[in-house]
């Protein structure tokens, strides 16, 4: 039955109500339900329960519309777009159009778009799109690279690109195929570099033509800087380990710093390296080892009076230097030299030389301790002269060299006369003073290349390097003249402090052993003792006979 229109509105029977395509309910003036079609059961139930909040407004204003959500008995919700249509006799048809699917799809689409937008913002720092001309046509609202979005739109990405990861095709901003995590360095608004990981896909028209690209970028600058810093730290540790291992592999302490100089120069790419030490009894830097080429170190060392580091150009050199310390005290310095044509020193070089200087400071202290122990084992505790063992080791070494070269030498045995009386009468302190005076006397009448030793007690020895017989005799005469000054230590007029000298001269090229030379000098000295003391006697040549 079709609706009939009369003077007061639509005339609609029950069959006509069923013919309507959506839920429909016929209501009287007060909103009571007269009839409902099959699809309108849920709507009729809501009206009957007075749960349709818009009903009064729909009845009062025919033709008005309202969208309402109605719960279904089977669960779920029915969304209707309701309209009131006036009917005959003051009745009203409440007709609904089912928009449940439409609204759900719209909500799902909105939710999907928001979800996508949230995911993009979470997983990236900005999203973008380029057009067919390669310029930005979209940048996410928060902008990028320190620019607002509208400051980037219309500009080419290439204006900001500093460096792209090496590839054989277009970059992410003009991608012709999907790309993922391409590393791109770009310039920010303040000029600082920014490292981005870009992923993008091309945009194509219906005909397959390229119309641009769209993608996202994620800022990984801090990650890359941390990676680079870690890599540099690992490299410094590797180089330092190489230097330290090189130093420790040297068995002879004297070679430690030489090895350190070479290893340091190689590790830091220096043209040359110098290592200086400060001896415990000296305040000046002394060169202990060097490697390669270098300039004048004095201007650099002079600056260490007020600073621990030197990092400047000096003439044709780039110089990087640092003092060495042991227990907070400066005990040396490391100087690195690099030609001006080479690169300037880096921050890693500056950090590494400090580490090297610390290691060299420890090595220098070890060397100093070794030298101190060697000195103690080779010198007489009172006079500081060579002791017996060190003296004979050294003259044996020199004796073999002189034999090869055919050069002469002289050995003088010195034995003090009446020294026991000094200790007995004046005490051991005066005896020690007398021994020191004898030491000074012998050092004054010998050369730096000669050797002077205290063999024990009141016995001394002198090695005259490359000395012929006449020189040896002259030294003996000078020593006896100087020994007159020892009289002030004498135990008494009848026991004057003096010395007896026995001399043996090795003429060079003779088939004589060092033991035979020593025996001749010793025998000559005792010859003086037997004939009255206070004189010198020279042993006959090797193979000769002693005078009666």
Kindly report how far apart the N and C termini lie.
172 Å
Q: Which structural category do the helix and sheet elements fall into? A: alpha+beta
Major sheet characteristics: 6 strands, antiparallel
Instruction: Please estimate the helix content.
Output: 25-40%
Q: Report the sheet-strand fraction.
A: 25-35%
Number of discrete helical segments: 14
User: Quick one: overall form?
Assistant: rod-shaped
Number of strands: 23
What's the arrangement of strands in the largest beta sheet?
9-8-13-12-11-10
Would you tell me the overall average pLDDT?
87
Q: What is the gyration radius calculated from CA atoms?
A: 54 Å
Which spans have pLDDT < 50 for at least 5 consecutive residues? 1-9
Describe this structure in words.
By secondary structure, the protein is an alpha+beta fold. The chain contains 14 helices and 23 strands. It has helices spanning 14-19, 41-48, 55-60, 100-123, 149-152, 221-248, 256-267, 298-302, 347-378, 388-405, 419-426, 428-444, 469-482, 514-530, and strands spanning 4-5, 10-11, 24-27, 33-36, 65-71, 77-86, 92-98, 126-130, 136-139, 161-164, 179-187, 193-204, 210-219, 272-277, 286-292, 309-314, 317-326, 329-339, 409-417, 451-456, 459-465, 498-506, 536-538. The strands form five sheets. Strands 9-8-13-12-11-10 form a six-stranded antiparallel beta sheet. It has a five-stranded antiparallel beta sheet with strand order 4-3-7-6-5, sandwiched between helices. A hairpin with a 5-residue loop joins strand 11 (179-187) and strand 12 (193-204). The longest helix is centred in the middle third of the chain and has 32 residues, at 347-378. It is rod-shaped and about 170 Å long. Mean pLDDT is 87; it is low at 1-9.
